[in-house]
Design goal:
single chain; alpha/beta; Rossmann fold; 2 domains; two-stranded antiparallel sheet; 9 helices; cysteine biosynthesis; PAPS_reductase_CysH; EC 1.8.4.8
């Protein structure tokens, strides 16, 4: 993120510091401190609450709170629940939504975005695209064609991780709602309601305990618009080039990056492989600069000694 946050646990024993990466409108960083015992207690307590109660609690607890979503079923449930909470307290600030447009979404996903904007007219949607480009053609002119195939870590960082980090910085995000659930399988089976991730960002997973059937039932009962691809065997929808329908008995996310060991795009990892590569490359560059500088110092020293001897 663009600014330095207070390091995790820097001022409190066993503590966590979560703040926005840039100043809020008041000029103050929205900092939240949670000790490990407090976090454990909150997760234990919240795990027994209904999602709408978790959302209600989070709204009055965390400043600079946003929802991040690609408009999958769980995100749509969260969106609808938040709209109901807004009717309970219309004077309260609404929760803005962050959508990462990778430029490779299915057309059905983009159509759904328009339906959601029409259905929830008061939604404030922040759309972030890969840096410096607005279209697929511009992305491929800058990064090459099929980057997801030739360098998947680079693709994840460029199309998803960097735009997410830029959104968090631009909007001074302190906490976010996500659509992750334990029943989605892979690395999400032990998901907590509240997580504090690298950099101090607080992630809240209000529907962590729900099954796919529960999410489907809510969507149907509340007539929430959803992605038409779900009627064609898809359960988890990402980019068109890395998403397939799911077979009977497979995990919800089995259609994502099928045939690979990959389960996450990097946004919900501690640090994407490409981000780690960039970090290590920068460390190597700095080390090489230091070596070169020392070599120059040695050369100058030897030259000076030659002059002294000659004199």
């Amino acid at each position: 993120m663009g600014h330095q946050d207070e390091p995790v646990g820097s001022t409190l024993e066993s503590g966590y510091a979560s703040g926005a990466s840039s100043s809020s409108s008041s000029g103050q960083l929205p900092t939240i401190h949670l000790t490990k015992p407090h976090l454990k207690f909150l997760n234990s307590t919240l795990n027994g609450l209904a999602p709408i109660d978790i959302l209600r609690w989070a709204k009055i607890t965390f400043p600079n709170l946003y929802q991040t979503t690609a408009f999958g079923l769980t995100g749509l449930v969260t969106l609808d629940l938040l709209s109901k909470l807004q009717k309970e307290t219309p004077s309260a600030a609404p929760i803005d939504v962050i959508f990462l447009d990778t430029l490779y979404h299915f057309q059905e996903t983009l159509d759904l975005v328009e339906k959601i904007k029409a259905r929830y007219s008061n939604i404030n949607l922040h759309v972030y695209k890969p840096e410096g480009v607005n279209t697929t053609a511009e992305f491929e002119a800058k990064h090459g064609t099929e980057l997801w195939k030739h360098n998947p870590d680079n693709y994840d960082y460029t199309a998803k991780v960097e735009p997410a980090q830029r959104a968090y910085a631009d909007l001074s995000v302190a906490a976010i709602f996500t659509g992750r659930r334990r029943s989605q399988g892979a690395k999400r089976e032990s998901l907590d309601i509240i997580e504090i991730v690298e950099g101090g960002l607080i992630k809240i997973n209000p529907l962590a305990s729900w099954s796919f059937a529960q999410v489907q039932e809510y969507i149907k009962e509340n007539n929430v618009p959803y992605n038409e691809l779900l009627n064609r065997g898809y359960k988890s929808v990402g980019d068109w080039h890395s998403t397939e329908p799911v077979k009977e008995g497979e995990d919800e996310r089995a259609g994502r990056w099928k045939g690979t060991a990959k389960t996450e795009c990097g946004i919900h990892n501690k640090r994407s492989k490409y981000a780690q590569f960039l970090y290590e490359a920068e460390q190597k560059r700095q080390q090489q600069e230091l070596v070169a500088m020392l070599e120059q110092v040695e050369i100058k020293q030897e030259h000076f000694e030659d002059i002294v001897v000659t004199a």
